[in-house]
């Protein structure tokens, strides 16, 4: 579906594993620790942007140590969801927190313009659009939800365990997870391609 300006709307595409590595490599070369920490945490946590952006340092760490597992209450469903923080993500978060001298009560990604506020949705979205552009993609096919879908999609492709993905995303109904990943159509197409007639 297209908007009046000709831009794609609807479900945003997840990034592929090689895309993530290309973005990571570029950010490491540029020494862009903020965006590296943002990329890594967004992929690990699989949270909606509203939850990711309102996270505070105390939600993911204590005593200066980043937790390997976090329980976080989602604002949309008011339900707890658990996620892991990989060592790569923990390392980038520690560097970012130390570089910005953030306290436990600070947002992990504070607004660059408004003191005491988190990074805005539009600012976060513009970062993801830029990443997509730099990969040579149509930036309007990607957005904040691409980050939520990326690891979930990679896990499903690797394991085909839809129940595990449902738990990781915090979905109440399995049907929501199936629709969210678009797995029925994708699997049906793959089966069709692999079937000789």
TrEMBL record:
It comes from Shewanella vesiculosa. Residues 10-193 form the Tyr recombinase domain. It comes from the Bacteria. InterPro entries: DNA_brk_join_enz, Integrase-like_cat_sf, Integrase_catalytic, Tyrosine_recombinase_XerCD. Keywords: DNA integration, DNA recombination, DNA-binding. It holds the Pfam family Phage_integrase. Belongs to the 'phage' integrase family. This is Tyrosine-type recombinase/integrase.
